[in-house]
Amino acid sequence: MPEGPSIVIMQEEMQAFSGKKILEASGTANIDMNKLLNRKVVAIKTWGKHFLICLPHLTLRIHLLLFGKYSIDEPRKGKPKLQLRFTNGTLYFYACSVTEIEEDLDDVYDWTTDLMNKQWDPAAARKRLRSHPDMLLCDALLNQDIFAGAGNIFKNEILFRTRLHPLNTVGAIPTSKQAAIVREMHTYAFEFLRWKKAGVLKKHWEAHTKKICPRCGIPFHKEYLGKTKRRTFFCESCQIRYA
DNA sequence: CCGGTTGTTCAGCG
DNA sequence: GCGCTGAACAACCG
Q1: Fold that domain A112-234 belongs to in CATH
Q2: What fold is seen in the domain A4-108?
């Protein structure tokens, strides 16, 4: 579930609870459930992979990590980390991280970094990318300070679309390629959203989990690369290595 | 049925 | 203090 577009879908599914009062709060998360009682959800927001339930002067930050799941009205097996009952239904969150944010969200989050946000700023993203010349592309494309909401699927698909080898450093590639990464990231984010909603996301993968390059037909490499050591699928022939 | 993973944080170590 | 490694979390798919 966890990449940015999936969190936007979750937000849409839970939007009916915005404006509602918490009648019951429980779960294994290490927060004080009592203080949530009778408080009104003033907004539900997202930033990258962060799902934000805003109460007056307090925000619950839910991160699904790798395995997290949620449901509405239908409890799953296992103990929820957080369960919130409202007049119009109950929200369940499993295997996730739940933390509290006391500060003003605008002081915590740079909304221009979030691929899914209206305030997404490609020029600012190019600048942030450029500021890490020694970072490998396979790490940069997962960096939430540069591309909030991007995940491993994004990384593999964008590197393939831009014909860039994952082991290039940011500084080694042309400025035009840096711009192409930023552009494709944003384009793919909304394709991901559309395809995920339609249940056809996997069908559109060109690189992620693939064994053969769809462009030239030779076998993909599958390696765990970079500081992030995440699965990377790439074509040694089609994806250019500058340095 | 087991192995692997759309992710992040933190403890422990050198 | 730094960077690196591994653990922890714990659900589902193939």
Answers
A1: Helicase, Ruva Protein; domain 3 (1.10.8)
A2: N-terminal domain of MutM-like DNA repair proteins (3.20.190)
0.85 cut: is pTM over it?
yes
- Residue A44 CA, nucleotide B3 C1', distance (Å): 36
Domain parsing of chain A, residue ranges: 4-108, 112-234
> Does the nearest atom of strand B lie within 7 Å of A226's Cβ?
no
Helix segments in chain A, DSSP class H: 4-14, 105-108, 122-130, 137-140, 152-161, 175-197
Q: pLDDT tens digit string along A3-24?
A: 899 999 999 999 999 999 999 9
Phi, psi dihedrals of residue A198, rounded to the nearest 5°: -85, -5
Task: With beta carbons less than 8 A apart as the criterion, state whether A120 and A146 touch.
Answer: no
Q: Which helix (H) or strand (E) holds A85?
A: strand A82-86
Residue the block writes with tokens 């500081």: A227
Please report the pLDDT score of residue A1 as a whole number.
64
pLDDT of residue A144: 93
Residues of chain A with pLDDT under 50: none
Question: How long is the CA A197 to C1' C11 vector, in angstroms?
Answer: 21
